[in-house]
Structure formats: C-alpha cells, structure tokens
Amino acid sequence: MKAPLFIGLMSGTSMDGVDAVLASFGPQGAQIHQTHSLPMPAALRDELLALQHPGHDELARASIAAQQLTELYAQTCTPWTQGPEKDLIRAIGVHGQTIRHAPDQGYTLQLNAPALLAERCGVDVIADFRSRDIAAGGQGAPLVPIVHEALFRHEHGRVILNLGGIANISLLLPGRDVFGFDTGPANMLLDAWMNKHQGQSYDKGGQWADSAASDPALLASLLSEPWFALPAPKSTGRDLFNLGWLQEHLDRVDPKGELQPATVQSTLMDLTAHSVAQAIRPYEDHIQEVIVCGGGAANPAMLKRLGDLVTMPIRSSAELGMDPQSIEALAFAWLAYAHIERIPAGLPAVTGARRATVLGACYPA
Is 321 left (phi over 0), alpha (psi -120 to 50) or beta? Predict the structure, then answer.
C-alpha cells in the first residue's frame, strides 16, 4: 500500500513566489517526490507589502489579497491535484502570508483562504499553524526546528540555518532536544533596499553588496537594536525590521545622506552575518557544522561573510541531498502530516509555550 502524499506550500517573507513540494513520510524519514514553483505576480506582491502597514480599507483589501494568493496556491498545486497522484494526496499544508506577528499581544495574522483552497483543490487543507502555540503562551515561531530535527539530526552537533526573509536557527545538539529561534533579518531588508535603489527583487549572488565596503558606524547602530539582545525563545518579522526601521538608523548615523546605497546594502549583509554569528556563538563548542537552507544558501557573498565570523564549516543542505529552496515547503507538508497524526509540533523549548500542542486547523475538502 502506497504511503499517503502531502503537499506543502510556502510563500515566504521575500514574496517572490510560491514553492510547493509533494512528499511522503514514514519510518525512513521524508521523501520529496516532486517540486513546483510559480512566481508571485508583481501587483499581488506590492499589495501584500503594503498590507504590512496600516492603510485605508485594509480589512477588505486583505480579504481580497488572501483570495488572490489562494488562487495562486491552487495553481501551484494543479499538476498534482489534477494529476494521477490526486487520490493519494491526504492533505495540503499551507502557511499563508504573514502580515502581522505580535505574540506579545496574543495574536498573529497570516493572509490565507484555506476553505477556498480546499474547494479549488478537492483536498483537505491544514492551515493556521501559529495560533494554537500562541494560545498556549508561545511565540508561534519558528515552526521549522522540529522538521529540521527530523531531516538533519546527526550524531554530531549541527546548526540548521534558514536564510529566508528572516533568519532562524535550529540547534541539533548531542543529548539535547531540538531548540531554535529567529536571529533577525536575512534577505528581507536586503531585498527591500535592492528594490528601492536598483529596481530588482533581489541582489543576485550578493554582487551589489560585495561591490562596496560596509559602514562600521551604521552596522554598530543596527546591531544596537534591543531585540538582538533578547533571550530566546523569540521571533520577529516585518513589524520590526523594515525600511522605516533602517531609515531611523540612517538618520542617526548619516543625517546628511552621504552613504552610498551600495554601502548600505553591504552593511545590511553584514547585519545578517553578524546577527547570525552572534546567535550561534554560545553553542560553538558543541557544533561541528552549519547547514544552510532557504534562498540565502544561493548567496556566496553572504556565506563567505558568515564563514569569516564562525569557527565551524558552512555548507548548503544541497550537499545532503535536500534542495535549500524546498525545505520550508517540505516543512509545511510535514506539519500537515503531524496534524493528521496528532503529533505535537509546537515545542515549548522552541516557542516558549506552556506545553506542546498539535498545530493547525483542518478545512475539509
């Protein structure tokens, strides 16, 4: 009897597109059968970015954007939900697009229309993965450490570093349960600054950042952000790290606006490298390697700067047979599987919740 299949969908903080995986899970671990991606339409991306901040008629706009995003999700699933695999697909796990994350105020908001997705695809949909953990007093994030443990646990210590819009780490240390936390911005500010000054969605290979030296005074100001000094568990997002936040630091350090845009881009790359290194440093004696996934794994300039700051080797998850760009989508396929199997995926050691909980809500087909 064939193992049931699960689809995982992810449109991350970079908002460049939707990544999907078709996977199965069993005693031998996870198996990715197929992957598929679709680009994010520019108009939808612009609206999702605008909804990160208060604005006119935002409730109606958010509902419409959620429907448009869900139609894109459904299109991404079409090769499987209208293909020969359909009868084997047990559920779709979908995160939605985070536009507010305020666990200290007891809420988080991901734009999504899971009932619509279930209707379009004819498959059960598991969504709203963060709310249950927040109800139990947790951060609702990060969600992926338990999946990283299932994929990458080894007899020697590892850090799994996800470089998406936000950077987060999962610590797989010998003799200890998995734990992890957000470390700060990864690609989010870099992409926003690139778009503002170069009109491109991202800095391919970090070439623009590498064309200039970073500014020590600006870097020191950025790293002085109190959030970096908070103890784990902690999580963050665009609510804090956005272009407005960056401009406040630029106004403080460079009131005459003399810094070149490439210098700022280089400094933002150093911000990611330094904040990640700072988060890893207390555990260095127990770690033999850093495994990188997410879009930042394809940025050699970023990885070199990080490598200059930590003592252990850094390598891509691709070297272990896992496509870096597919890991987060695979995580939501696994979280859907965990929901169906009643496996608690909200871990107190990761999120700070009072107890472990089963995450997600089911929208039947």
Answer: left
Q: Which two tokens stand for residue 99?
A: 């536009």
Burial (CB count within 10 angstroms: exposed 0-12, middle 13-18, buried 19+), residue 331: buried
Tokens of residue 153, six digits: 């646990």
Express each pLDDT in 126-159 by its tens digit. 999 999 999 999 999 899 898 898 888 888 899 9
Tell me, yes or no, if the two domains 5-140+325-363 and 145-312 fold the same way. Answer: yes
DSSP result, 3-19 = PPEEEEEE--TT-SEEE
**Model-level pTM greater than 0.85?**
yes
Would you state the CATH architecture of domain 5-140+325-363? 2-Layer Sandwich (3.30)
| All structural domains of the chain with their residue ranges | 5-140+325-363, 145-312
- What architecture does CATH give domain 145-312? 2-Layer Sandwich (3.30)
